[in-house]
Write a structure and sequence with these properties.
Molybdopterin biosynthesis moea protein, domain 2, mainly alpha, two-stranded antiparallel sheet, Hypothetical protein af1432
Length: 407
Amino acid sequence: MFAVLTDKLKPGKILAQEVRDISGRLLLARGNEIGVNHIRIFKTWGVSEVTVEGPARGNEKPDPESNPEILEQVIETAKTLFQHADLDHPVIKKIFNLSVQFRCEHNLVDTVGEVHIEEHEIAPRDRKINFKKKLEQKKIILPEIPSVVFELNEVIANPLSSAYHIAQVVNRSPSLTVLLLKIVNSSFYGFPSKIDKVSHAVTLIGTREISGLALGISILSIFKNIPKEIIDMYSFLKHSLACGIFSRILAAQKNFGQTEQLFVSGLLHDLGRLILYLYFADESRNILSRSRNNNRLLHEEEKDYLGCDHAQVGKQLMEQWKLPLILENNVLYHHKPSEAQQPIPATIVHLADIIVNSLGIGSSGEKFVPPLDLEAWENLQLPLSSFETIIGQATHQFYSLESLLQP
């Protein structure tokens, strides 16, 4: 009996342990022979591995303990990344162990990523005291695609609108249309047949989901010209997409009705950091440099250096763009959700950010795993036993969409 990664699973194996999806629904009982359709169903529902009968033959899931040297290196790396988190807390301990397992399986031995960034001298009077005023005066212009999003919101708000009317708006942006159809045809949704019309996609996944996807895709598409010496945008997008997917799955686990809002919230939770990188490059270089040199959390260094952090910057931009208040709530409080007016959705994004940082899927510039808001966690009431399934399903969905991030 041994574990096999779903991507390496071959038909004909006999299932040694039953397979269930994230909601506990039975997908296949033990003792059954695994067929092609079963493998497709496992992938659709984000099952990352199954246990089959017989001796291991090379397709089995890597055992972290089979190479003690690599395991030791990964544990030491993880301890560095978790130095601001309480490893004695059951949740953090669980995430730490799953992080070590994930990093061993994906050969992420050393992902601390020491990058030296030169600090630029900026007079104190030109930064903390006047930063908020400078931010308010900075002309951050809405690009073309978000205007489509505003039109979408107007159409969706009209009770007489149909899927056809919504598709008409989306089709005005060819690049958005292509990307949306790629997403709905991926295993993120797992539809059995190809969808080639936006109107069909709207009918299947809903108007709010389409609007949310359009919003997230559109806004992140603005930030293509950030200097590479500040942030690797591909890595940033990976982190953002993974946080969106984890937020969506955590929301489903809590039976939270509006999962698309959580997907967009996770996708845009570090939006303020992109504003800093794009419009305040010198300040951002200094904040990143100080954070890494002093082993401090990036958002704490932002507060000390600027008088506010990226969450506040993101909220201010969302106000200017008149985005839904729930998105403002989740973005503003994703580091301290217990202070939010709506703490549960903010806590979901908070937890997604912690997990994604722990797994090392991309980076928004933060080197460390953020600390857990203990009060918010107690209110969430999520069973620790669900974490393996959540990580398995979310990472499978992430890898199915990762190719869409390529330029």
